[in-house]
Amino acid sequence: MIAWLRGRLLEKQPTRLVLDVHGVGYEVNVPVSTFYAVGETGTDVELRIHTHVREDALALYGFLTPYELTVFEKLIGTSGVGPKLGLAVLSGIDAVDFAAAVQRNDVARLTRIPGVGKKTAERLCLELKDKLPPVPGTPAAAAVPAPSDAMRDDLVSALVNLGYHRTAVDKVLDKLLGGDDVPRFDAALRAALKELARA
């Protein structure tokens, strides 16, 4: 089983990275937060890895911190939650915020995540309340903001990949990015998800 990878970033998409590790290219599925934090192609990246084995496929899921990996593994251990939904959850909410929402039994917050309905949110709260690790005391360092145009492209790609219609995404992003005070990517993504959930 692959548990950790360090290599040069060859390709990046909002939910997929390719790492060159000593001449071997590893495709790694990642949450949107990890996509943004790893930097540009050509940089060195270290990821904690969950290796998911099925009869017809072997897939790698990568995370920047052990905490994110642990939360992901607890998520996919929940009945009815597979790796794809687990990744969507951690793309729609920070791992620490997710753990806090589960502890508060905040079903309303969880149902704002794309792909999570009320029954799934209730099941997550019930099954994970006593299983998630303690929330780490120190939050991860904030990522360096990207230029506005590049960030908008990344946001569009991330939101469309999460299932939102392009027209609705453009409308929300016009509103969020139209002023002089442009938010960081992670803040903009959460704000966009919140707006789209209201629509």
- The CATH superfamily of the largest domain is 5' to 3' exonuclease, C-terminal subdomain
Mean pLDDT across the residues is 83
Total domains, how many? 3
Q: Please tally the helical runs, counting DSSP H or I stretches of 4 or more residues.
A: 9
Strand/helix succession: EEEHEEHHHHHHHH
Largest sheet: 5 strands, mixed, barrel
Strand order of the largest sheet: 1-2-3-5-4
Q: Tell me the CATH topology of the largest domain.
A: DNA polymerase, domain 1
Which architecture name of the largest domain does CATH use?
Answer: Orthogonal Bundle
Looking at the structure, what is the overall shape?
globular
Give the helix proportion (percent range).
Answer: 40-55%
Alpha-carbon distance between the two ends: 42 Å
Oligomer designation: single chain
Please give the radius of gyration in angstroms: 17 Å
Strand content: 15-25%
Class inferred from helices and paired strands = alpha+beta
